[in-house]
Amino acid sequence: MPAAALLPEVAALLPEVAALHWCCTQVYLSRTGVSGCSGMLRRSGLSLGQYFLRRKNCARFSWYLNKTKMSRPVQARRLEGVDKNIWVEFVKLAATYPNVNLGQGFPDFSPPDFVKEAFVKAVGGENIMLHQYTRAFGHPALVTNLARFFGKLLGQELDPMTNVLVTVGAYEALFCCFQALVDEGDEVIIIEPFFDCYEPMVKMAGGTPVFVQLRSKAAEAGKLMSSGDWQLDPAELASRFTKQTKAIVLNSPNNPLGKVFTREEMELIADLCVKHDVLCFSDEVYEWMVYDGKEHIRIASLPGMWDRTITIGSAGKTFSTTGWKVGWTLGPDRLLKHLRTVHQNSVYHCPTAAQPLLSLGSSGSGIPKRV
User: Fold this and answer.
1) Are 110 and 320 contacting, i.e. CB atoms less than 8 angstroms apart?
2) Cα separation of 276 and 278, whole Å?
3) Which of 370, 334, 258, 249 has its CA nearest to residue 299?
4) Closest-CA residue to 51 (of 64, 30, 36, 32)
5) Structure letter (DSSP) for residue 246
6) Threshold 0.90, pTM exceeds
7) CB of 158 within 8 A of CB of 332?
8) Is the dihedral of CA 262, 266, 269, 275 positive or negative?
9) What does each C-alpha distance from 1 to 5, 9, 369 come to in angstroms?
10) In 234-356, at which residue ranges do the beta strands (DSSP E only) sit?
11) Digits of tens for pLDDT over the chain (371 positions)?
């Protein structure tokens, strides 16, 4: 557009610019203790008519400011319906009033002495690299020991560089699973009751949560009901698997029930996953808190499941160091390579200092005696 053609537009804006200058002057006068009206009339010799004209222009300028504000929604659609979190509210209330906080899953026992002592010694020592970036997908010492330790339990030869990913707690591990492997239109089976983040994370990824309940059976005569009395109905579970099913989320020991799934239940889930070619996100953060003669079964160790399972663990739950936020995923490279893509394009890197220290415990000698 020629410059001359813009002159009328510029001229039309001059009253608004003058009004803005006048408004700014009013702010200055108010901050210096001079009355806006009397000070303006005194200092500039404005007539009363000129004063009210400028007040009118200032009001018009404010109207223009409001008109130019964005009116369309700024949040992404994937945030709709997932912005509220009940545990955020409970934690805030627990910090405000004296009570017992049941809203967060952290152990009530102290970290092992060797972990605390090693941490203090390390961060106060001369190794400056503990305060710098380390390998994005996990400190070499930690992923090496995790591969060696869990490889024996899973019956697999784990490559530390491709079969292990260290995350900012198990929470980020879950987030990476859903973001990397769940797409719009995919269905994800969630067993109720469940850890609260599963549903919103599925929705944020564009997936559809499909629920199946653990149902309580009557306790035996003379016995109190236990978490083991909550069981899946095989027919009901099978009915949830469809052509749209992409994954099932398994949490054993279960939060909040504490239920440890039996081998028979694990085999039922495994058979359905293989039959329908479905992934399994196995949240096993409470794997070392198994009591009363129960056995923790790692579903990735069952026939046909290694290649379709991501196993999620947590140093926070294992060593009572939830504030250190160190978690991990174990699985085949064909799955973990996609989690690494999400990881490197979000948090990229986990805090360094705690990782080599926790590798001491993951070698097996420091696992708390909670089994």
Assistant:
1) yes
2) 6
3) 249
4) 36
5) E
6) no
7) no
8) negative
9) 7, 12, 78
10) 245-251, 279-283, 309-314, 327-330
11) 555 555 555 455 555 555 555 555 554 555 555 444 444 444 555 565 555 555 666 666 566 666 667 777 788 888 888 888 877 888 888 889 887 777 676 777 788 888 888 888 888 888 888 889 999 999 999 999 999 999 999 999 999 999 999 999 999 999 999 999 999 999 999 999 999 899 999 999 999 999 999 999 887 788 888 898 999 999 999 999 999 999 999 999 999 999 999 999 999 999 999 999 999 999 999 999 999 889 999 999 999 999 999 999 999 988 889 999 999 999 999 999 999 999 999 999 899 988 988 876 555 444 443 32
Residues written for the chain: 371
Q: How far, in Å, CA of 280 to CA of 248, rounded?
A: 5
| Location of structure tokens 């010799």 | 45
Q: Three-class SS of residue 248?
A: strand
Asked whether the beta carbons of 363 and 192 are under 8 A apart, the reply is no
Spell out the residues 6+ positions from residue 318 whose beta carbon is closer than 8 angstroms to its own.
287, 288, 361, 367, 368
* Helices and strands: H and E segment counts in the chain: 13, 8
Cα separation values, 335 from 93, 154, 178, Å: 39, 17, 12
Residue 209 · residue 178 · CB < 8 Å: no
Tokens of 366: 């420091």
β-bridge mates for residue 80, sequence order: none
